[in-house]
Structure formats: structure tokens, C-alpha cells
Amino acid sequence: MDPVTLRRVARTWLLPFSILLGAFLTLAVLVLWIDTEGQLAGLWDRLLHPNPVTAQEMLGNSAEVVAAVLGIAITVVAIIVELAANRYTHRITELFVREPTNLVVMGFFVVTALMSVLVGYTFDLEGDAASGFAPRVAALVSSGMLCLSLLLLLPYFAFVFDFLNPLQIVERIRQHAIDVIAESRSMEFRQQEAIRGVEQLADVGMNAMEHKDKAVSMASVDALRGMVMDYQALRPQLPEAFFRVEGELSHNPDFVSMSPEVLALVTRRRIWFEMKILRKYQTLYNEALNKERDICYLVAINTRLIAERALESGNDELYALTVKFFNTYLRATINAKDVRTAYNVLNQYRLLAEKVLPYDEGARSIEIANYFKYYGIVSFNAGLAFVLETVAYDLCALNEYAFDRKSPALDALLSIFLQVDKEGETAVQEVSLRGVRKAQVKLATHFLMAGDERHARLVFHDMADERVERLVSIRNELLRVDSPEFWEISDRGRNFDYLPPAQKEHLRTFFSWFGTLPEIHEPANDTRMTQVPQPDADAVAEG
User: Fold this and answer.
1) Which residues partner with 124 through β-bridges?
2) What is the C-alpha to C-alpha distance for residues 270 and 293, in angstroms, rounded to an integer?
3) Nearest to 481 by CA among 459, 463, 496, 460
4) 220, 374, 521, 528: which has the highest count of C-beta atoms within 10 A?
5) How many alpha carbons fall within 13 Å on the CB side of residue 368?
6) Could you tell me how far CA 12 lies from the centroid of its own chain?
7) For residue 125, what are the β-bridge partners?
8) What mean pLDDT do residues 115-143 have?
9) Can you give the pLDDT at residue 332?
């Protein structure tokens, strides 16, 4: 038993039981000491050899006491289990009934009641009590069981509340699904139990979002990722039949609309379980857009972690699937016009592009960069200009990362980056395109700082036809920003427009290639107002 479980058992059972037992013994000794005037020597003998008549009367009522305790326990448990099941998932009732602790405690109450009835029935004190039959040992055991039943009541309630903690329920559902997949039962049963576990975790997440239980919904999202991670270790041991999408599995809501050709492709790629989980991620993501953005961020983070695990385990099919879902998230985000979510999801997507840079000579990073450009332009055309600006800064960071690691993909990545900008039609789009140019200038100065004039010249040639006013404005804004942190809380924790002092030294060198640019002195406003308004991107998108 791990230390966390031991602490939970101690907190739930041992601590309240010890407190109640200690309080009872202290009170009992105190009052008996007063009654016997300090003469406790004969007390033990009285306990072992009680008066038969008194014992019979006491045991005659103990069965009623235990029955009342059992009734209280069942009533309380039934109410709170039903409430929890209605709030989160009906699976709670099933898990609770299957829990062995409930059978042990309830069974102990029942046995205690039956023991009290039996012992009371066997007393025979008719006529001369001294010559009758008094089952002293059985009476002592029954009395002890009665006391233990009463002492267990409150710890049992503590156990029930701990068991019904939604975070514990989420973990039990996850673990049960993985355990069933690893069992050697029929393939159909294992598939259906795996599907049921995924759907119930998604239901818990959805219901928790409705009730604003963010911790529970986030725990569900993490549990789904944990399922994928644990499943990757089981995959090599599973028979081929487990990966087939056929029979009842093919009629699951997430697969029933797929054509036979697509189902055959999923079977060949052996990814139906991962697809099921990512489809639930998509459902949770769509539900959380513009409402519970933290859930969207966590879905993106976990999708990236799943992709990284797929790379480590050599599961190329799963990696390709995660890329498709990242694109799906971005499409849904653009359709919902949730700029702030796009800002954070793009960050996770860029981290994935950096992670895959060493693979296939950077081909996978180039693929993601093309998707960045595509969704940046789609966002721009949809009136979400700030998303394009975010794409530009992420592509800038990806190019810097590739350059610093001497990746053979650098030239392709730079070419993609320089294709991101296009002429704007509105004031907001114009501001955004200036942001794209600033990101390109940042990259050029990064090249110059490392002594690579060739790549910096490529950026210069792409900007050669820019208007002088825009070039001067971009130069001045980049020179004025002197803080690496944005002046509001930003999830990324950095200011897009900041250049370290060493990099600023190369800024004037880059702009000198455009000829003599005028020193246009702009109004002496707060220099912070020229920085990219990252956390308040919604306002930028609305114009």
C-alpha cells in the first residue's frame, strides 16, 4: 500500500475510531472510578462475569440498537450516493456497491444484530438463576461487537464521504478501465468496458463544467490522458482482435457515422481507443470554448503530452492523430471567435513543433508550421487579426529554436514564416500585420546576433517594399520596449515585442539596410501602450 493510501486510511478510519474509543474509555474509567470511590480492582472481574439477568436484559435490546444503527447507515449512504450519482455519473452507484469495505461494514452490523438475538435467545434463567444457563463468553463477545458497531459508525461515514469524493471516483473509473483492458476476458467485454470508462470520465467532466466544479472537470481531462499513457504500455501485449472496430464497438456513437473504409483504416492503424479519448477531448473542448477556457488549455496541454509520448514509443499513427486534433481545436476556436483560447492553444502546438524538430530532418515541424500559416490566414480573414499576430510570434520562436539547433529544416521554416503577412484592409488588420513584421524583424536580429547575415538578408528582401512610415514605427516600438514581461497577467509569461539589449544593438544594423530612415519622434505616451495586448486579445479581435 502506497504512502498516500496509508495516510487516507489513517485519516478516514484510524483517527476518528481512536478519538471515539479514547473518549469512551476515558469517560468510562472516570465515572466508574467515582462510583467505586477509586476501587477499580474488581471492575475487570465484573466485566468478565456480569450479572446474568442484567446481561440478558441488555442483549435483548442490543439487536434493536444495531438494527437502528444499520438503518441510519443505509439511509444516509443511499441519500448521498444518489446525490453524487445525479451530479456526476451513475457509475458512482456501481462502484460503491462493488466496494468490499461496504460489504464488510454492513455485514458486520448484520452479524452483530444476529449474534445479539441468538445470545439473548439462549439465556435460561428460569427458576434459580444460579443453576440456569448464561452464555457468558457469547454475551461478552456480543457486547463487544455492539460497542464496535457504534464506534464504527462515524468512521464509516467518513469513508463514504471520502469514497464519494469526485476526484477519487475519477481515479477509480480510470484504473478500472485500464485493469479490464489488461485482463484476459473476452475481447468484446474488454472493449465495451474501456469505452464505458472513457465515456463516463467525459460525462463527469461535462457535468462538472455545468456545476462549475473546475477541479473535477480538470481531473477528468487528466484522467483521460492517464488512460492513454497507461494504455501505451499495454498495447504490445494486446491481441490483434482488440484493435478491430467491429460488432458492437462499430455502433458506438463516435464510430457509427464512419464509413466502412474509415473504420477499416482505424483498425489497420490500431488507434480506435486513442481516437475515442481524443474525440471526448474534442467534445469537452467545444463545450468549454468561451466559457471554461482553462479546460481548453488543459485539453491542448494533454494532447501535446500524448503526442510526445507517441513519439517516444514510436507510435506514429497516434502522433499523426494528435496533430489532426490540434488542427480541429484551432478550427473550432476560430469558428467560436475565442481569441484568448487560440493564443494559448497555439503555444502548446508550437511546443510540439519544437519537440518534433529532430525527427525526419524537421519534416514534422515543417508540417506544423504550414498549419500555423494556414490557420493564421484563416483567422485573419475571419476578422481575428490577433491570432495571425500570435502565429507570427510562434513561428518566429520556432525559427529561432531551429536556428540555434542547426536544424536542416530552417530554410523551409523561414520561407513559411515570410509568407504569413499580407496587406490588411482594416485598422485592426493593419495593426496585426505590423505585429507580423515586428516578429520577422526580431528573427532577423536573432540571426545577426549569431553572425548569420545570409538569413537576415532573406528577411530584409521580404520587407524591401514596406512603407517607410511603417518601418520607422516598427523600429521605434521595438527600441522602446524595455521589459521582458507584459504589464498584465499573461499565460505565456513574456512580452512578444521585447528584445534583450544585445539583440537591440543589431536592430539598427538591420534597419540601416533600408537606407537612411527618418527619425520620426512619436508622441511621448507611456511606452507600454506600444506592446502587443496579449491577455486582452478579445478586445483586439473585436476592433
Assistant:
1) 133
2) 32
3) 496
4) 220
5) 31
6) 26
7) none
8) 70
9) 97
